[in-house]
């Protein structure tokens, strides 16, 4: 599997502060990211806490970088599977009340050669999570 970083960009018609809040609030993350999320804190070393839903692919994520209002990163690994990638969310103020979010995911080539870990699945996932779910959450009251 290719180890070329996966990079996607999304534009939201809201302030950078509103996007940052959605990236770091457990309640908002449950809406756009993963409903199984139980607890999250934007602190380096914090291990995401997920509800044990007996899913085959249990996430083991830890925050790796926080730059308040600008960047958030975490590893992306699965219990019982080889491979570890990193997801980096970076925020850029485009103009008043418009924010660009760039997501970069590295290390996808470290995952097993299996349909669940295919690059295309992650591409679709970011389009769905950030291009649909997060956009709807952020812009629903505009």
How do the helices and strands line up, and which of them pair or pack?
Layout lengths: L5 E7 L3 H9 L1 H7 L4 E3 L9 E2 L12 E5 L3 E6 L8 E11 L2 E9 L12 H21 L3
Antiparallel strand pairs: 1-7, 2-3, 4-5, 5-6, 6-7
Helix pairs in contact: 1-2
Describe the structure.
The chain has a single domain, classed as Alpha-D-Glucose-1,6-Bisphosphate, Chain A, domain 4, CATH 3.30.530.20. Helices cover 26% and strands 30% of the residues. It is built from three helices and seven strands; from the N terminus they run βααββββββα. It is of the alpha+beta class. It has a five-stranded antiparallel beta sheet with strand order 1-7-6-5-4, with helices on one face.
Number of domains: 1
Q: What structural class do helix, strand and pairing data support? A: alpha+beta
The CATH topology: Alpha-D-Glucose-1,6-Bisphosphate, Chain A, domain 4
Topology order in helix (H) and strand (E) letters: EHHEEEEEEH
Helix percent band: 25-40%
What's the short version?
This protein is of the alpha+beta class and 142 residues long.
Features:
142 residues; alpha+beta; Alpha-D-Glucose-1,6-Bisphosphate, Chain A, domain 4; five-stranded antiparallel β-sheet; 3 helices
């Amino acid at each position: 599997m290719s180890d070329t970083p996966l990079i996607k960009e999304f534009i939201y018609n809201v302030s950078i502060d509103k996007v940052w809040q959605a990236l770091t609030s457990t309640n908002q993350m449950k809406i756009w990211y993963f409903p199984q999320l139980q607890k999250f804190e934007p602190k380096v070393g914090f291990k995401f806490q997920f509800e044990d839903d007996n899913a085959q692919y249990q996430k083991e994520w830890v925050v790796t970088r926080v730059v308040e209002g600008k960047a958030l990163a975490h590893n992306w690994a699965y219990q019982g599977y080889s491979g570890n990638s990193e997801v980096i969310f970076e925020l850029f103020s485009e103009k008043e009340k418009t924010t660009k979010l760039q997501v970069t995911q590295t290390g996808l080539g470290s995952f097993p050669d299996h349909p669940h870990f295919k690059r295309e699945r992650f591409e679709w996932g970011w389009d769905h999570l950030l291009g649909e779910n997060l956009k709807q959450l952020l812009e629903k009251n505009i």
